[in-house]
Amino acid sequence: MTEHSDPVLLPTLATYRSSSLYLAGMLLCMAFALGACDSKTPVAQEAPRPVRTLVLQIQEIDVIGQFPAEIRPRIESALGFRVGGKIIERMVQAGQEVKSGQVLARLDAADLKLNEDASRAQLAAAQAEQQQTRADLKRYTELRDRGFISAAQYDARKAAADAAQARYEQARASVAVQANQAQYAALIANAEGVVTAVDAEVGQVVAAGQAVFRVAGSNAKEAAFQVPENRVDQVRRAGLAEVELWAGGPILQGKVREIAASADALTRAFAVRVSLIDPPPTVQFGMTATVRFTARRTDALPTVPLSALLHEQNQTWVWLFTAETSKVHRVPVKVLTVGDSVAVLEGVQAGAEVVTAGAHMLREGQTVKRLESESRPASAQGVARTVVTPGVLEASGARR
């Protein structure tokens, strides 16, 4: 069977096909026209980014190791009763100064008194027995000398007298012990100092030796702090330190007395004690302070503000500004210290102009507009005091 096309549909299909081709052609022409228009549109140029710069100068450097510290006593004793019992009276509070021989607290001594009375009764009985056996021995000695008793009978009486004498000595020592126990019901300060802590209250039953008070000797005061392992040798060599209280006052002098032989298990830092030399009475335990160690460098170095540093890819960078091209170029540097200012060991030289503001917003070769440029002047004494902040940047490089 042969398929015949419908004569009515043929013109319609032809018309549809011709219209589709016409639309495609129109779209293609529009695309070319738009492309031609875009090619003629000018590209907007990026405006130069404004920056502040600094011209570096060589300066003498005082490297200062700075650490937060706390004022503590050199000797702090935990005081407790030498006998157990119930606390019935407490005479001092935390922070109170105490004198040697001052009573700090008392226990209920009723049982101790009863034990002392019982010991005295035993002493009386032992003394009576001793006197009786001594008199018997005297009589048996006379009988032995006259030959009325045997040597064995005399030896038995003498052994009984010796045993009675020993029991008497034992009872007398027991009385002395019980008398001391009764006196131990009063807790007495053994030296002059300050009560730093109270660990028990009235009504509490404490065991013998349990800490009730912590008393710090007021004669020797120290600044306690911790240093990281890469600063231990520097602190040991420095020896002398300046101690500045956060509460204000004159700067105190101190000397390194002790550096821990091992690092703290939690912080991995080494504990250091600096003894204060002639501290004033206003220095109280628990005050916060800053300990500084100063070491003058023999060579002069350029310094830059902390805002000029950029830390990326385990490296510290600065942006150098070239006045001829108004462009910036990033260079790596090695720094000595971090604080208000940074001493640069390698990477830039005196006379270089570095960007001090907006460093994190720049890219290599970018055109910038210099808003302000200045030379960093030396201090009045010609020395720049640069502060070491442990754990921020290391002197050997720029690793965190």
Tell me the strand order in the biggest sheet.
2-11-14-13-12-15
The number of distinct β-strands equals: 23
Q: What shape does the CA trace take?
A: rod-shaped
- Our measurement of the CA-to-CA distance between the termini, rounded to an integer number of angstroms, reads 90 Å
Uncertain ranges: 1-18, 376-383, 390-400
Output the structural class: alpha+beta
- Portion of residues in helices? 25-40%
The helix/strand order is: HEEEEEEHHEEEEEHEEEEEEEEEEEE
Mean pLDDT: 80
Strand residue content: 35-45%
Helix count? 4
Radius of gyration: 46 Å
- How would you characterize the largest beta sheet? 6 strands, antiparallel, barrel
Explain the overall architecture.
The chain has 400 residues and is of the alpha+beta class. Helices cover 27% and strands 36% of the residues. The chain is built from 4 helices and 23 strands. The chain has helices at residues 9-40, 110-146, 151-183, 232-238, and strands at 49-55, 58-73, 76-79, 85-90, 97-98, 103-107, 186-188, 193-198, 205-206, 213-217, 221-227, 240-245, 252-259, 270-276, 288-296, 301-305, 310-312, 315-322, 327-335, 341-346, 353-357, 368-375, 383-388. The strands form 4 sheets. Strands 2-11-14-13-12-15 form a 6-stranded antiparallel β-barrel. Strands 3-10-8-5 form a 4-stranded antiparallel beta sheet, with no helix packed on it. A 4-stranded antiparallel beta sheet has the order 7-6-4-9, with no helix packed on it. A hairpin with a 2-residue loop joins strand 17 and strand 18. It is rod-shaped.
